[in-house]
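Bug #77: duplicate submission created two jobs. Keeping one. Sequence:
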Amino acid sequence: MGAELSVRGLRHVRGGRVVLDVGAVDVADGARLCVLGPNGAGKTTLLRLVAAVEPPRQGRITIDGISPRDGGVALRRRVAYVTQRPALLSTSVLRNVELPLRWRKMPKGRRGAVAAAALERLRVAHLADRPATALSGGEQQRVSLARALAVDPDVLLLDEPAAGLDAQSRTAFLADLGRALAGRATTVVHVSHRPEEAMLLADQVMALLDGRVHQIGPPEVLTRRPVDASVAALVGYDNLVDAYVEADGAVTVGGAPSGLTRHGPAGPATAAVFGNGVRLAPADGPGIPMRVAQVAPGPGHWTVALEGAAPLLAKVPLDHPPPAPGDRVAAAFAPDLSAVLPKPGAPTRPDTPR
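Kept job's structure:
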């Protein structure tokens, strides 16, 4: 069972500074929204306001049409909030997970079974009798999530639950989180600064920068059609290049053809290009004249740093021989791995290259 979450005219001030200014956001019953933004964007503040940890200075948040102030304890008990740093008590793992069930007056005979099942879903049932504060960071985060899921919340709020984990532990944790949520109708709001987490866990992604919503939509839309350069950087584009849309629609960089075209009026633009969308050819081929500055191996690819009209980062498949430092090459951009964006203030909408 989930719940509809609605935000209207939300404005929050801290220390005399506006830290959150959100006009209208709706999260459908059972939907999964990831709020994607850099540190300081207002992500945690948004969760704290939804969880009624603090009231907003202005605006209204409702769950199934009821505000936390009007819904009282009954409404707040429908929400579970997993903070970035697990707040576990210095007692056993099992007792930590049982605690919110006691607050909800669940019979003692049932609490243990429900708590144990939640720990099993997160693969930490073998830690049930261990002191919670003696666990590793990853284990504590799994226990914290198990505690939240044990109460079967209508709304689950996740504040970067994998932020403190190394890459391998983070991948395993997110996979287990996905399995634990599978088949549940819980409405989930998850905040992260990592685009790969946003795309993995959400059916809607909200790009939040400086406390304001820049774009909201399905993960594929934000990835393929970011509205501006700041969203492109947020979702992981490796290159943001000053470009120009010519009268015939060709997109040039430093006067050289980039391989992209764009519908719309001529003028300055930004070419957002993933590293694996930078195609390298011999120097006498069509493209942007570049010089190879550095080559280094990466996970599954060669990272090639280029110098020229604009610095570029190319990712060449590891089974392809890369150019050598000092080589002259021509760089072009793959349309399916690029987006052409208007400069700030331009009246035109962003477009996908054709």
